[in-house]
Amino acid sequence: MDQPPSSVKLLGSWADSHTHRVQLALKLKGLEFEYQEEDFINPSPALLLHNPVYKKVPALLHGGRSIVESVVILQYIDETWTDNPIMPADPFERAVIRFWCHFTDDKLAPAVGLVFSSSGEGQKAAVDQVHENLKLLERELKDGAFKGRRFFGGDKIGLLDIVLGCGSYWLAVFEEVMEVKLIDPESFPVFHAWLRDFEEQQEVKETIPAIDRLLEYARGIRQMMLSLSNSSSSSINNAAASSG
């Protein structure tokens, strides 16, 4: 029997894709929950209490107990409230989903992050790595485990759609901020069509912040990174000039 959704609280951050994963899963399940906005720099005592190991969002509180790490939280939600499942029943299919979730967080996300945090040849290499990862996903959608499906989860959004989709909108943001091309509809037509379909779902629209707000946030972070980099360079140059 499903557990009642009472006493469900999410500690998260408005711009954090991992928080969006949990928010979207709760919406797809039709669950009501309390939300507490967290500051990346100054986490609340509640967040430090409920996630003392990593000290970061998201953290889901249910019945006085805490669950952390977004993919772990998603599986907990699906196993606790079994209506509107986001994971397949077949063990092998579940294993495939878990593999590609790991791929998303272990391969694709770090490459996308490096595009944002690097420049010059390093950034070009990061863009190439993003493209190589997208080629693998495109292949799986066209001829692999997810061939012929509207979503990775089938006819409805599933766990892998949530993990991959909540974060893929940053690709468009980074394209504009960094002036690079990450998703070419001609190179990745099936993935591009999947992403557009995902973004048009009502629950997704209710979860993902407006693109203008994300752009403003990304530009602010980028400017701060450039300022820190320039400050470090100046310190090194000054030290070199005063030595000897």
TrEMBL record:
Domain GST N-terminal: 6-85
Start and end residues of each GST C-terminal domain: 90-221
GO-annotated molecular function: glutathione transferase activity
Keywords: Cytoplasm, Transferase
Keyword match Cytoplasm: yes
Protein's cellular compartments: Cytoplasm, Cytosol
A single Gene Ontology CC term: cytosol
Reaction it catalyzes: RX + glutathione = an S-substituted glutathione + a halide anion + H(+)
Main location: cytoplasm
Role according to the record: Is involved in the conjugation of reduced glutathione to a wide number of exogenous and endogenous hydrophobic electrophiles.
Family: Belongs to the GST superfamily.
UniProt-recorded name of the protein: Glutathione S-transferase
Organismal lineage: Eukaryota, Viridiplantae, Streptophyta, Embryophyta, Tracheophyta
